[in-house]
UniProtKB/TrEMBL annotation:
Name of the protein in question: Glutamine ABC transporter permease
GO cellular component assignments: ATP-binding cassette (ABC) transporter complex
GO biological process: amino acid transport
Cited PANTHER family: INNER MEMBRANE AMINO-ACID ABC TRANSPORTER PERMEASE PROTEIN YHDY (PTHR30614:SF41), MEMBRANE COMPONENT OF AMINO ACID ABC TRANSPORTER (PTHR30614)
Protein species of origin: Peribacillus muralis
Keyword DNA damage: no
Family the entry assigns: Belongs to the binding-protein-dependent transport system permease family.
Subcellular location, record wording: Cell membrane
Membrane topology: Multi-pass membrane protein
Gene3D superfamilies: MetI-like
Amino acid sequence: MDFAGAYSPDNLAFLLEGLWVTLKVAFISIVLSFIIGGIVGIIRYAKVPVLSQILALVVETVRNLPLLLIIFFTYFALPEISIKLEIIPAAIVALTIFESAMLSEVIRSGLKSIDKGQMEAARSSGLSYTQALIHIILPQALRRMVPPIVSQFISLLKDTSLAVVISLPELTHHGQIIYGQSQKYLIPILILVALMYFVVNYSLSLMAQRLEVRRS
C-alpha cells in the first residue's frame, strides 16, 4: 500500500472533481424526482380516474426493474429511437425515473397515513378537496415522510456510482482511474472514496434528524 502516492495533490484534486460530479448529478436528480414523484404520489392518493391506474402500473414496473437496466436503456437504447443523451444527462434521466417511482410511493403512503377523518373534517368546514389536501393533509404527512425521503435521497447519491458503467466521471469512476495506475493505490483510494461517501451521506442524515425535530 502506498498512501503517500495515492493521496498526492493531483489525485486528491481528481477525486474531488469526481465528487463534484456525483453531487451535481445527485442534486439535479433529487430535485426532479421529488417534483415528479410528488405529483405522481398525489395523483395516486387522490385516485384520479384512469390516470392513477396508469401511473400505478408505470410506478410498479419501474420499481421492480434494476436501476442498472434503466441506466443502460437511457444511454444505449434511446439512441435507437433517435434520442441520444450525453453521459451526464443520461445518468440524470435514469436516476430521476427510478427515484421518482420510489418517492411517489413514499409520498402516497405518507398521505394515506393521515386519518381520513382529517379530510372529512376539512371538507365539512368548507374547504375544497384541493385546499384540504394542501393545507391540512400534506403538512402533516410531510413530517412523517422526512425520514424515508431522506433515506431515498441517500440511496440515490450512492446509486450514482452505478453510472460508472456508462463512464460517468463521478467519484467511483475517478477512483478506479487512480488505482488503475498502481495496485498499491487500491486500498488507500477505496478507503478515501468510502470516507467521502460516508461524510456526505452522514451529513444528510444529521440534517434530516434536525429537520424532523424542528417539525415535531
